[in-house]
Hints:
The complex is a heterodimer.
Chain A: H1 9-20, E1 26-27, H2 28-35, H3 39-51, E2 55-60, E3 70-75, H4 77-90
Antiparallel strand pairs in A: 1-3, 2-3
Helix pairs in contact in A: 1-4
Chain B: H1 3-20, H2 26-36, H3 42-61, H4 64-85, H5 89-106, H6 111-131, H7 146-153, H8 156-170
Helix pairs in contact in B: 1-2, 1-3, 2-3, 4-5, 5-6, 5-8, 6-8
Amino acid sequence: MPRKPNSSPQTRRVLAALAARPEAWRHGLSLCGETDLSSGTLYPLLSRLKRHGYLESEWREPETPGRPPRHVYRLTAGGRALAAAGRESAAPSGAESQPA
Amino acid sequence: MSRTGLDRLAALLMALARRLAPGDEREWLQAMRSEMDCLAEPRLRLRWAAGGLAAAARMRARSRAARFQGLCLAALALITVQDWRNPDPTATFLALVFAPGLLAFAEPRRRWGIGALFGLWLLAVHAAADLWPSLRPHYQRLPLSPAELLEIALLLAIAVPAAQLGALARR
């Protein structure tokens, strides 16, 4: 049976970082910093999320001339739903009934 | 190590990672290479490149082709162990029918390669073991004669048709 794409804590961290600014395109370097994951962990996760249709990516021309184009990422609608589902399942039970 | 040396090593690791990654994942290694150029410190670039190698290894491990290669290697290892421990060739013959047959059923396009690999495998390992007497199977303390080598090579006549049959059964 295939594993749920949001089942690992690392994937949930990536989804949470991307969902924090869902409209913004993000670089791998900034995602590494925000999630505290190594590049060797982050990129296979991004690749899996894209393969499942939760992430979109594109190549962007660099701000500094002479640098290679950079790959940028953001969640699709399905990815945002997955991130929200991950947040709900991670929240302690009864949290919603707590007074504000 | 000098700044240039670290950068050369980082570039080498990224090139290795790109080669190691499955074909449909190479874009991700290209993305990692681009990001690496945005890091200011050579040590950070080297660390990033080491991550690239780890990422490529992970991507490869989960690719279907790599899993299939692992399955082939595991089957070959089992056949070798069985053949070394047991002087009766019946079990080896059966393994050389079923293993290539099942693997070719799973990957019909590779049936010729699977048949050749399994057919020639024991010839190769017996010939290699013949060079070091301590590695020879216990039932075979003398060097292999040409007739015995030919007998082992004839296993090709079992493995290749078995793979063909496995692939045929898939259609």
